[in-house]
Amino acid sequence: MKNFKRIAAIAGVIILLLIFCLPMVFAWGSSENSQALFRGAFAAAVLVPIVAYVFWMAYRIWGNKKPEENPNRMIENIIFDVGNVLVDYGWENYLRGYGFPEEKFQKIADATFRNPVWEEQDRAMHDESWYVDRFVESAPEYEKEIREVIRRDSECIHLKDYAETWVKYLKNQGYHLYVLSNYGSYMLDRTKQDMTFLKYMDGVIFSCDVHEIKPEADIYKTLLKRFNLKPEKSVFLDDREVNCEGARKAGIRAIQFKDLKQTAGELEKLGVK
């Protein structure tokens, strides 16, 4: 965006210089139309800067304005988890959609979404096939089903209907917004394009990019250091209390997200409106 603005500014200067030079070019001409062309070029040299100035002033008055920041705010930074806060992570409904008998459903759930390897997958220390093999090892009799479930697992992620509106509102109120989320690299590759709220974020950390996961202390330290955040001026929203506790240990205020109304109410107690 900065490069675009720089190029546009240079192009504008060049165009204005050309417009100012045109009257001189026509003034020295010898054709019968030189005088008319001179007058037209002179008028353009006068009028174009005036019109450009009018448009610029109109933009200054009515254009998009950067939200004002209040230095007296208790909270300056709002940090979001993604799963079950800004997107639905509905793995149970997704897995139920296969119509497996109950015993089979439970075994596949234990082998995949409830498997400790699933959370370790968010650290992204191995390629996807390595993790899939570990899932299969937990229930080899259902290898075919497990591989199909993992192949389509991005179907359990859906953007919450309020996500972009909420994030945009907070951004317009002048808050700095960040993401701190446990997220596997392959799941991220398949779902990131649907996270329309990311364009409003001032910084984003997915666990797979830093090879650290919540609630370990290192990932909170990475967030604070990378974006130079004051922990006492920050609040973290996560649906899991253990992750909220990890943030509190790092000096960050935290709210366990249960639903939008509850979280908005607790944010309001911190002065976030």
Automatic annotation (TrEMBL):
Keywords: Membrane, Transmembrane, Transmembrane helix. The chain crosses the membrane at residues 37-56. Pfam families: Hydrolase. CDD domains: HAD_sEH-N_like (cd02603). InterPro entries: HAD-like_sf (IPR036412), HAD-SF_hydro_IA (IPR006439), HAD_sf (IPR023214). Gene3D superfamilies: HAD superfamily/HAD-like. This is HAD family phosphatase. It comes from Blautia aquisgranensis. The lineage of its organism: Bacteria, Bacillati, Bacillota, Clostridia, Lachnospirales.
